[in-house]
Design goal:
By secondary structure, the protein is an alpha+beta fold. The chain contains five helices and 18 strands. The radius of gyration is 18 Å and the shape is globular.
């Protein structure tokens, strides 16, 4: 695993979200999801699975407000487990905690869906081998079928001990306001390729992955961006192979009228729907 989440592929590495109550959110992400606390301040916590790599940052703005409905922003972020056995162990853990979840077989993957106490969406999944994915005319076949839970549970009877160290941020799925502008930004600007379209959604990737970024208008065409202090997405990071690759993308973004701002060690860009992206190396 990992060929789609390393150089030279451009991929999602880290996600930052707002929560209502930091300590409650930390408890949920440790006890239910199985992340570990890497560092914490009064209003921010960084979570990891390997003890060193930030995967998820939780923030509690001073004037935080609950998640707003029918806006752009986070649909879900998706944690990719190394093996089917890992997902089996996680499924048994969810059943034992009795925390509500959904489940789907997407042909390319098997996935469990959870919503955190503040309404932030989470997917936990494993990928079937890429040699088993079915491609036709540049599009990958992805379905939404019922998950065979009994088969998944039979994969492992090992005890749950949190998420494995090899867990990655597999992809992110966002609500957007306008698919045409979104397509221009992510394809012509960021250099992603559309690998699947259906029902008001685009699935995009680099390097032949089934998707690094999903984009949909399911909250309504023209949906407004949420307020900065509301529960939901703060930003997510995209990792580029090197400085040259990132500079090429910044030039492409400039050509379509999107300007990246230089921060300390990375660049910040906002997509046409107000979703903030950190361009890192």
């Amino acid at each position: 695993m990992g060929e789609f989440h390393q150089k030279p592929v451009t991929f999602v590495r880290e996600v930052s979200i707002n929560v209502m109550h930091l300590d409650n959110a930390i408890r949920f992400y440790q006890d239910i999801i199985g992340l570990q606390l890497l560092k914490k301040t009064d209003r921010k916590a960084v979570l990891t699975t390997d003890g060193k790599t930030p995967l998820l940052t939780l923030e509690q703005p001073a004037d935080v407000i609950p998640k707003e409905g029918r806006t752009t922003g986070l649909y879900h972020f998706a944690l990719l487990l190394p093996t089917r056995a890992d997902l089996s162990i996680f499924l048994r853990h969810l059943l034992q905690t009795e925390y509500r979840f959904g489940a789907s077989d997407h042909d390319v993957s098997e996935a469990l869906y959870i919503t955190d106490p503040d309404g932030n969406g989470i997917e936990v999944y494993w990928d079937r081998p890429s040699s088993d994915w079915k491609w036709s005319n540049g599009e990958v076949a992805m379905g939404t079928d019922p998950l065979d839970g009994n088969s998944l549970l039979a994969e492992s009877d090992a005890e749950w001990n949190g998420l494995p160290a090899g867990t990655l941020m597999g992809h992110i799925h966002l609500h957007v306001a306008d698919l045409r502008k979104t397509e221009e930004f992510y394809m012509l600007g960021l250099g992603f390729t559309i690998v699947n379209r259906f029902g008001g959604a685009l699935f995009t990737s680099t390097g032949g992955y089934h998707h690094h970024i999903g984009l949909n208008t399911w909250n309504g065409v023209g949906a407004p961006a949420p307020k900065k202090n509301s529960v939901g997405l703060n930003w997510y990071s995209l990792v580029f192979a090197d400085e040259e690759a990132r500079n090429k993308v910044i030039e492409k973004l400039n050509k379509i009228g999107a300007e990246a701002t230089k921060e300390d060690g990375f660049y910040v860009i906002t997509d046409p729907s107000g979703n903030e992206i950190h361009l890192v190396i």
